[in-house]
Structure formats: C-alpha cells, structure tokens
Amino acid sequence: MTTFAELFEREPDGRWAGPGRVNLIGEHVDYADGLCLPFAIAQRTIVEVAKRDDDRLRLRSLSEEGGFDGALSDVGPGRPEGWAGYVAGVLWALREAGHAVGGIDLLVTDTVPLGSGLSSSAALECGAALAVDDLFGLGLGGSAEGRKVLVDACRRAENDVVGAQTGGMDQAASLLGRAGHALLLDTHDESTRQVPFDPTEVGLTLLIIDTKVRHSHADNEYGARRASVEKAADALGRPSLRDATLDDLAALDADLLPRARHIVTEIDRVRRTVALLDAGRIAEIGPLLDASHASLAGDYEVSVPELDLACSTARAAGALGARMTGGGFGGSAIALVPTDAVDTVSGAVRAAFATAGHQDPDIRATEPSAGAERIT
Ligand code: GAF
Fold first, then answer.
1. Ligand 1 centroid from CA 28, angstroms
2. pTM of the model
3. What is the distance in A from the centroid of ligand 1 to the CA of 236?
4. What does the alpha-carbon distance between residue 204 and residue 227 come to, in Å, rounded to a whole number?
5. CATH 3.40.50.1460 fits 199-366, yes or no
6. Distance 26 CA to ligand 1 centre (A)
7. Residue 218 near residue 114, CB atoms below 8 Å
8. Ligand 1 within 6 A of 169 CB?
C-alpha cells in the first residue's frame, strides 16, 4: 500500500478521524429551520496530514482517483472538483472566516463507505477541519462552541465550494457527536443538546441496513425538495415552516402541500422522540421511526423500493421501528431491534432482498460514538 512518506517524501504530523453519521429522526428538516437528532457512528474517515510552510495543497486518497495539487488561493466555488473540493473547501472557508491557515499535505487512508447515506462527505470535511485546527493552532476543536465554528466552515465548503445546498446536520453530528447520546440540533438558532441514547443498555440494537443503492439524480432531487419547502414557506408568508400548523398548510396547492406536511409532522416527531428519550423510554420510539419513513416515502418522495423493503421486512421480523436515514434515493435504513432478534431481522432482510433480486445489503449494528478526534 502507498504510504504518506512515499507520496509526499515526508512523515505526517498526525492522523485525524471524522465519523460518519446516522440520523435517528428529523430528516430533510435541517434546511427548513427544523429539529434533527443525528449521532456520530463508529465508521470513520481517516486523514494523515502534515502542515506546510507555504500555500500549497497536495491532497490524495488511497481509495479515490483524483485529488489536488495547487495553491490555496486557487480554491473557490467549483474548484477543485471531486472529493478534493470537500477538503480544500474547508481551508478556503476557514480563511474566508478570517482564520490564519496555509498549505497542507493530506492523504485519506480510510473512508466511510461512499454513497451509503452515512455522510462520507461530512466525515472527510470534519476530519480535515480538525486536523487544520490542530496544525494551525486555531484553538477551535477543544470546545463545543469552537467546534461549531468548524461545523460552519465544513458546511460552507459543501455549499460554496462543492456546490451542494445541504443543511448543516451531518457536520454537526460528525464534530459534536458523543458516545451514548444523540445530538438534538435546532437549525433555527444552531443550538444543540446531547440527548441520552444508548439502546444496548436496554437490550436493543440499532441496525444500519445499507442497500448499496445510489441514484445519480439524488442531488437534483435534493435541490428540488429544498426549493419546494422554501416556496411553501413563501406562499404562506412565513420565514420558514417551523411554526406552521397542519391547518395553516390548507392554503397550499396540491404539489406543495405534501412536501410541507412532511416538514411540519417530522419536526413534531423529533420533539416527541426527544421527550421519550429524555424519559428513558427508548423502546417506545419505534412508531415514530415508522411514521417518519412513511412521511418520507409518501409525502416527501425521497425513498426507493429497496429502502421500503428493508423497513417493512425488518418490522415484520421483529424490529420495533425502522426508517430510511439521510438524504434518501438509496443509501441506508435503520432499524431498532431487540438484541435477541438481530439475527432473525438481518436474515429476513437478506432473504427479502435476494427474493426481490436486489444486491445483498450490508447490515451492521451501530451506536452513538465520539465526534471527530485526533488519533495519533
Ligand atoms: C443530507 C444532507 F447533507 C443533510 O444536510 C440533510 O439535509 C439530510 O440529507 C437529510 O436530512 O445528508
């Protein structure tokens, strides 16, 4: 395997990890002033990084083609293309925000599976952001408030350099995640709260079912959903749909109504999920997960048959609840399962996928894990 030293003729200053995320509930509401409840997972993207004394960026990956070799001053909207834009974009955003950052050599040695709906992009951005914070002594990584500044830089990298109009949920989960907790993120004021979430403590397991499906039109569809939600808020004369009621939505046309209904009902489901978790009633959140999936599939139309099959089969085999997680159009579902039913549920989902002629899904247990950190 190629090493950092072979590529760059020097040793790295250290290694940093940025985790992927699962969103427990609160889907497609982070660009709508809503509430979401993600957590960082054990699957991580690892970067080896060395600081440079000049302005040059040399970015390479062991698993991905492409990369970048150029000046930080050449980075901007649309440049560089490909995965390197996520890393270069973080440095660009930090510099735009007034932080004194310069060049780096960086090698991606491990990655959260791409297209799995577990936010490999945020994992990369956040691992790189923490490395840059450490190496240039920005002092942001040591506190939640500082990490929120890094969250903003990672989100700007994605919005302004890569050009994906995503919300900030994934970056917040990757940088602010904590073992045993889900992160309640209020995207209205960016406030956060750690909510206890430890399924294993009560004999439950949260499974990730990666369908391995990735649709190429996902980015366009994501943008279209976001535009519909903004249009619906405009039509109602509100800054966002956050405080709208179902009755308010009656004024919307038939195209916008279901989209807006998803936002309003999903925010309510997050509130109810948090209330149950705060009361230690984890096993009771299943119906809220199911209702979230139904809303995403029916009203928001971001699911695909493989995600629907994963959820319905998991439920029929004993899961307490199941839903797609992340942006949709492929990627992963989650299922909350009594630990003694994990084999039954996994086997049933595999069998259903085989019968339907789908690829064999990747199924694994997950739990809330630490946010981005330095490893060595
Ligand atoms: C993607 C986006 F990047 C997030 O910001 C969020 O909108 C999510 O889709 C849907 O909840 O992961």
1. 6
2. 0.98
3. 24
4. 38
5. no
6. 10
7. no
8. yes
Please pick, among 170, 210, 290, 299, the residue that the annotation labels catalytic: 170
Q: Is 170 a catalytic residue?
A: yes
326 touches ligand 1 (CB under 6 Å): yes
Which DSSP string do the residues of 92-156 spell out, in sequence order? HHHHHTT-----EEEEEEE-PPTTSSS-HHHHHHHHHHHHHHHHTT---TTSHHHHHHHHHHHHH
Ordered by start, the domain boundaries in the chain are 4-196, 199-366
Q: How large is the ipTM?
A: 0.99
Q: What is d(CA 249, CA 251) in angstroms, rounded to the nearest whole number?
A: 5
374 in Cβ contact with 133 (< 8 Å): no
| Helix and strand element counts for the chain (H, E) | 10, 13
Architecture of domain 4-196 in CATH? 2-Layer Sandwich (3.30)
- pLDDT > 90 fraction of the chain, expressed in percent and rounded: 98
11-24 pLDDT, tens digit each? 999 999 999 999 99
